[in-house]
Amino acid sequence: MTLGAAASAALCWVVVAVTVAASERRWSNAAPAPDATLAALASDHLLQIATVIAFGVPPLMVVGGAAPPEWPMMLAGLGLGLGGAVLRARSMQTLGRRYRLTPLQQPDAGGLVVVGPYRVVRHPGYLGLVSAFAGLSILAAGSWGLVAMAPLVAGVIWRMSLEEELLAEEFPADLPTYRRQVPWRLIPHLY
To answer: Where would I find the beta strands (DSSP E) of 99-183?
Structure first.
């Protein structure tokens, strides 16, 4: 790996990280969630820790001696990272005032959202989040950086289950139909 390629990978990492941070800042509703369940608050803490791991460990792997990615892997990481950031932002925008950092029932925030990216998978925001951080991991430490994604993926899977339980309580008539129309939780034709 040349110095130029390593610098390019680092620059791409910064671009994706800033894009993710800016979209989270723009679309997140960080208002307190006084009605949140203990499980919802615990999932918040788990995802915060998992995000720090996914964000911070791959650059530390490079400091520890892991090789930064070669050009093809760098381009894949950049595409995955930026694509994930765009999907996450689009998902948050589509949810509008239904988007919350902490999952909770919101009977006054409108109906079940089934448009936009929610026509393809039931949790496109999490697909975007995982994709963005996978791209960051690849940009920092190549395919080895993906090891740091395990806690984030586990946290997202738990969080999706928790959110679907809340949605089942809030939309007992609409959610079964939506699940039949959109059977994939995260990745079309896979999961």
So the answer is: none
Residue 175 falls inside a structural domain: yes
Answer whether residue 18 is part of any domain: yes
What CA–CA distance (Å, rounded) separates 129 from 91? 10
Tell me how many domains the chain contains.
1
Residue 1 has pLDDT above 70, yes or no: no
CATH number at residue 153: 1.20.120.1630
pTM metric for this prediction? 0.89
What stretch of H or E contains 146? none
Region 122-130: mean pLDDT is: 97
Place of tokens 């984030």: 152
Query: With pLDDT > 90 as the criterion, what percentage of the chain qualifies?
Result: 53
Residue at 186 is within a domain: no
The answer to whether residue 32 is domain-embedded is no
pLDDT at 100 (0 to 100)? 83
C-alpha distances (whole Å) from 131 to each of 15, 140, 172 are: 15, 14, 30
Report the length, in residues, of the chain. Answer: 191
